[in-house]
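Continuing the series of single-chain predictions for the mutant panel. This is the parent chain; the variants come on the following pages.
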Amino acid sequence: MTEAQYFQQGIAELQAGRTAEALAIFQQAVASNVATPRCWLGLSLAALTQGNVPEAEKAVDAVLVAEPHNMRALIIKGDILLGKDDFQNASSYYNLILRLATNLTDIPPQLASDLDRVETRLQQLGQMFQQHLFDRLSSAGYRRNQASARFNNSLDMLLGRKQRQDPGLKFPQSPHAFYLDDVPYCTYFPIEQLPWMADLEAHTDLIESELNALLGQSSDQFSPYVHSGLEQPQNSGTTLLDSDDWTSAFLWQDGIQQSEVLASCPETAALMADLPLTMIGGLAPSVLFSKLDAGAKIDPHTGLLNCRLICHLPLTVPEGCGLRVGEDSRETQRGRSWAFDDSVSHEAWNNGDEPRTILLFDVWRPELDSDERHLITSVLEAVSGFGKVSQSAG
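Parent structure:
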């Protein structure tokens, strides 16, 4: 049968209430390799009616791979995530649905009803999140009259009580997870204000020797770079996520120690232990060897926070490597470190003929006092703990 025949028969069975028969027809379309997004969507609806949530989610994911902005598929996906108490990702899908709906001029009655339901559920999730957040902050000792004005302002922005003013910059601070108000704008942070960087640079040979030993043990230690957590959805457009051209070996990943790599790099681990790393449960720090293959480029993107700095110590660097942060571009040089605000748009490239490898890690910005770090940590741990953080809408 043709795809159209499978689809028409499957829909007819669905409309007649014969969901088992509809499910079998759509499964046959998939097995015959003729299924299109509308057949996958029919399979998802039939599977949901049968109570087979895993198959329904697999089918709707296939739709979204082909048609990322398919409204019906997005609604089904959001509902499935909400049903699994995956509040954070359900909110991501629901927010995307409402953003897309603003561009629609002719909304069918059924879709209008679904959009009303999505908006109601988002409001309910927002109330749940606010209660969850203040419970965590209260247990962390937060008192509004004792916290800094910029933290209170940032909390109000996070909760939608205040709007951030447009700074009027070509490349503003645009963090995905948390914006701290009144943090001085910079691209590259003044290295003289990070005195421990000089000691790190002095250990370049030692760190590179541990990197080489790690590579000598097994090249499998390096895997395609995928940083999930709260960095999604970032919609950076980068073509290198999950690519063999941009790989990494983590010592700490999203705050979790990677014991095998740490054991292979004890001196590097010891050097990191003395730094003001952003210790945030389930989120940070990330400490890794990052390898960018010859001819590869990391497209412009922004990161999680504007209250941290991303630090690079270049270890193996062919000619033609560089980094742009905002409007400031610099050439990568072995043993010459830098720290930058990754909430500002940035991109990296390797125009050389050999891989470029750096040690990458994140630290708190030195302008923050211990109370601000504690409260920001509490906020971000509350955010990451509000439902699971496994995937998000694109």
